[in-house]
Every structure is written in C-alpha cells, then in structure tokens.
Amino acid sequence: MKYLIFGASQGQGDGIGRRVALALQEKGHEVRGLCRDEAKAAAESEFPLEALDIRTQTGQDRLKELIREHEPDVVWSACGVGYPSPLWSLPEAEIEEMIEANVKVNVLFCKACAPSCLDGGAHLVLTGSVAGVLEGTGTALYSGVKGFLVPFVRGQRAEYRRQGHHPSSAS
Questions:
Q1: No. of H helices and E strands in the chain?
Q2: Which is it for the CA torsion 141, 143, 146, 149, positive or negative?
Q3: Domains of the chain by range and CATH?
C-alpha cells in the first residue's frame, strides 16, 4: 500500500507520524512524508519528506497535487501539539498553537483531501488521542482539541453521504 503522512517528522511530542511511517515502511509499504518544517524536510530521512504549509493555499494545492501524482491508498494526518500544563497556566501562545495544530490544521488538511477521499479514493486517517475520548487522561485543552476530531470526522462522513458520496471510515 501507499501512504502519504502529514506530520511525519519528529515534533515536540513522541513523533507518532514518523514512527508510524517507519513501521509501515519496514512492513514493505511505500511511504511519503510531509511536515511543516523546511529544515526537517531538508535533513536526511528514511523516506521522502517534503515541507508544506497547509495553512496556505499553496500548501493545500501542493497536497492535492501530491495525492494526484502518487495516488496513495491512505492519506494520514499525524499533526498535533500538546502541552501538559493546566489551562489556567498555559501562555496564550501555547493555547493558540494547540488549537491551530490540532483543530485548524486538521480541518484544512481534510478540506484539501476531501475530493480525493470520496467514492473509492484514498482513505483519510486523522490521529487523535485517548485524551479526546476518556475523561481524566489529558489536560483540559489537549483533551478538548483532540476530542474535536471524533464529531468532526463523523460530521464529514454525514456531509459526504448527504451529497451522494460513499466515504468509508471508522471512528
């Protein structure tokens, strides 16, 4: 199978996107990675890694182009940021970063991928967290931004179906 993984570099956290990419590659799958950091993309990597900023139209257009060029079976977003502090002690910049990385970036990623992930196209995967579904497993803001993904994906699936499309997904 062919995978296109956004968030496939080691970030602030445990680097789940990179770890998944390496594990898939080890099992013989073709992996192409995407990240937001030019320096990380330029560094040596075990798989092709390209930087793009999904927050820009240029980045969204490049993602669509990569999907057309490589025809992946799975398009995966492993992007996210989390801080372990309670909400009341988080600096404004960290609050904004968590909302942007976990909510806005995933929304824009899905919007850019949507036409390619319908009616038998690539499967779309978003990486959530147990903190988003089980009370007490994460800090308030991290739980909230990761919890956003579950109704968001379900809502997308319902929207696609109402338009006569046939998305396949599990949430």
A1: 7, 5
A2: negative
A3: 2-162 (3.40.50.720)
